[in-house]
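[job 0412] stage=complex_fold ligand=NAP status=START
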Amino acid sequence: MPTALVTGASSGIGAAFARRLAADGYRLVLVARDAERLAAVAATAGDTAEVLTADLSTEAGLAAVAQRLHDDQVDLLVNNAGATLNRSFLKTTAEDEAWLLHLNIHAVMRLTHAALPGMTSRGKGAVINVSSASSFAPVMPGSTYPASKAWVTHFSESIGRAVGRSGVRVMALCPGYTRTEFHTRAGIDMSKTPSWMWLRADDVVAHAMRDLARGRLVSVPDWKYKVAVFGMRHAPRGIFARVAKDTRGRDGR
Ligand code: NAP
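[job 0412] stage=complex_fold status=DONE, emitting structure tokens
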């Protein structure tokens, strides 16, 4: 039975990965801070799901999960835990920003680093790093979240190319707005975001698993966001800045 370790599995996209991977026959190791909620997800993911409580913004939490990746034969790592801030850079503290970087970037680097040696020596395995469609341009003025996700996308593509020949896959998953607890947790009012822009977590995961099987390095679920990402990648920055609106209804000051 293959093993998958999913971070941020207590809600949203991570919980959707847990459901999908359990159905695909994986033994699961589910990571997040909230042990009770993790246990509830584990209960719906079959008898073999195991809970590993860790705060990935701390050194102790990262060390525990990295050790697990070192000791266990993990076939699929999903670096999904992540968060945003609800304030522009001029209003955050340096500690807020360091926390964001630690969770969104450092944890992804650390856990990928811990997982890859075993995978490359076995000549198989995969890492999915959950990034964001916002990683392709500095959308949402003043928010440092897209910059953190730009690192995740570039990192995944780069490492994916480097390990591809060894039979191991690394893929960035770049969803657009997805109905989860993500914005509520940060206290962001999304009531002005049109309903057509929202994706379902289960659909995002299904798309990711299809793209992973196809050997894609970057996965952008849904045609709407594929078009948006094309624009972000190829439109001149000046034009992009004029047409791009912050659909969360904030001005970023
Ligand atoms: P979510 O429902 O808020 O889930 C976030 C998960 O991360 C939870 O399981 C949370 O669990 C865990 N987490 C948060 N801080 C953590 C920490 N310090 N240590 C360990 N686990 C932590 O949001 P989501 O939308 O599913 O987010 C998953 C990923 O998708 C994130 O990387 C996010 O950036 C990305 N994403 C989301 C959207 C969107 O619109 N929702 C769009 C693009 C990308 P605990 O609280 O139990 O620790």
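The chain has one domain: 3-243.
[job 0412] exit 0
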